[in-house]
Amino acid sequence: GRAYVVAGPVTGDGILADRAVAVIGSDEVDDNLASTALGGVDLDGDLVPDYLLCAYDAGEGSPSPGAAYLVSGPVSGTLQVQADARTTIEGVAGMGHFAEACAVAGDVDHDGQADVLIGAHEHGVELEGRAYLFYDLPAGVVAAEDASAIFVGPTADEDLGWAVGGGRDLTGDGFADVVIGARKVSETADLQGAVYVVPGGIGEP
Question: Is the pTM of this model over 0.85?
Answer without folding.
Answer: yes
